[in-house]
Amino acid sequence: MPPPFLSIKNFEKYQHYKQRNPPWIKLYYELLDDDDFISMSITSRHHYMTLLLIAGRKNNLITNDMKYLRKVMRLDIDPDLTELFDSGFLIASRKQSTSISKRHLKQNALSETETEYSETETDNSETDHVEVPKERSTTPKSAMIWESYRSAYRFRYGVDPVRNRSVNVGLCQVIDKLGSSDAPMVAAFYVTHNSQWYVTKGHPVNLLVVDAEKLRTEWATNTQVTATQARQADGKAARGQVWNKLIEEAEGKAQA
Questions:
Q1: Dihedral through CA 226, CA 230, CA 233, CA 238, nearest 10?
Q2: The whole model's pTM is what?
């Protein structure tokens, strides 16, 4: 019987706090220099990023069921996780093993530049008491999609994208169009898109806003439609219309 759960190896490195559903996770730059990560296919790297987000919601206990994985990873086919297992990024788990040391928890809480929801962790010991600093009651609407867009952008271009008011407004518009669940994944997919128009412009947020629905369809169907492919499809359709017209004229003459 296969193990009931899948887990991200060393996930505690990405986790901020214990006993909650974090709105975002840490992603370290050192991943760009990891030979095992870089040697994987783009698809496997994309699966890894998706599973990181899911692990954050599920306390690093992802149900090991292909039907479930297709749904939460927004895929039409079963994900191939072979490279993730072979490279050690993903492991099978039979039991919950998500304990985080109090010292590690406290260090993480005190090192954050953005505060999180106010929490206090207490165990049965009278001397071991950790208080997490208070934070803002709300998280910016564009926080998750920005992190997804920024990570993918830095991976492709080696630098962070510009962030200003117009960028924030644009990212919020993408969320309004696609929803908060799909928008971050579509934003990351957009930066991997090799359309000549996107590449020439450097994958700015304004094009993501304009083509949000199209990109969501391509992401969901795991396809990328380039300008060349669009022209070929248009030419094929045009030739089909001419051919149909000739057939109709020939049939009309035959009946006459």
A1: -160
A2: 0.41
pLDDT single digits (tens) 189-243: 999 999 999 999 999 999 999 999 999 999 988 887 655 555 665 555 555 666 6
- In which region does residue 158 sit, left (phi positive, over 0), alpha (psi from -120 to 50) or beta (all else)? left
In percent, how much of the chain has pLDDT > 70? 66
| Whether residue 92 is found in the same domain as residue 10 | yes
Do residues 27 and 8 touch, judged by C-beta distance below 8 A? no
Could you tell me if 17 and 90 lie in one domain? yes
Give the C-alpha separation, 104 to 15, whole Å: 10
Residues 26 and 60 in one domain: yes
Cα 209 to Cα 219: distance, rounded to the nearest angstrom: 15
Q: Looking at the structure, do residues 90 and 26 belong to the same domain, yes or no?
A: yes
Domain residues for the domain of 64 are 5-98
Q: What burial letters (b/e) apply to 177-209, b meaning 16+ CB within 10 Å?
A: ebeeebbbbbbbbbbbbebeebeeeebebebbb
Total domain count for the chain? 4
| Residues 87, 30 share a domain | yes
Say yes or no: 56 and 116 in one domain: no
Tokens of 3: 């193990």
Residues 65, 10, single domain; the answer is yes
SS3 10: coil
Strands, E, within the chain: which ranges? 5-8, 62-63, 90-93, 119-122, 129-132
Residues 6+ apart with CB under 8 A from 249: none
Q: What is the DSSP letter of 75?
A: -
pLDDT, tens digit, 9 for 90 and up, residues 144-173: 999 999 999 999 999 999 999 999 999 999
What gap in Å lies between CA 39 and CA 133, rounded to an integer? Answer: 40
